[in-house]
Amino acid sequence: MMEAIGTIRTPHKTKQDCPIQPLYATSFGGRVEVLERYAEGLKDIEGFSHLHLLYLFDRAEAISLVRPTFLDDTPHGVFASRHPCRPNGIGMSIVRLIRREGSVLVVEGVDMLDETPLLDIKPYIPRFDTVPSASEGWTADKPWRQKPEGRE
Known about the structure:
Elements: E1 6-9, E2 29-34, E3 50-56, E4 66-67, E5 76-77, E6 90-101, E7 104-108, E8 116-123, H1 126-129
Antiparallel strand pairs: 1-2, 1-8, 2-7, 3-6, 3-8, 4-5, 6-7
């Protein structure tokens, strides 16, 4: 069983206020508050410009294995999307690390709700995390758009 290692603080209080991906959240700052008992694990994190945050979609609604997405009104499988209503409710975002203040990380690019439970932090390492030949699947021909009104 997983337990939170901290809390992500953001300016996004409601789902309607929240950007759908970090791409749309670059101007939003936040704080990653790591519990003191895990603070030692932040040693050397300052050397990385970006971090993967893994977190819990703790306010997602009913799980639906096939549904329309934020990018497309055509239903797609949940595992072929980044929709929050998924069986294990794990979210992942890449944020920019601004600085560390003890057990708090000041970041930019937050696209999660305020008080989101933090599950893990991993450094973004371009040498390992960038795949230039990757396919975009069904999203390749979709125009980028903001979260449509009335959509979760």
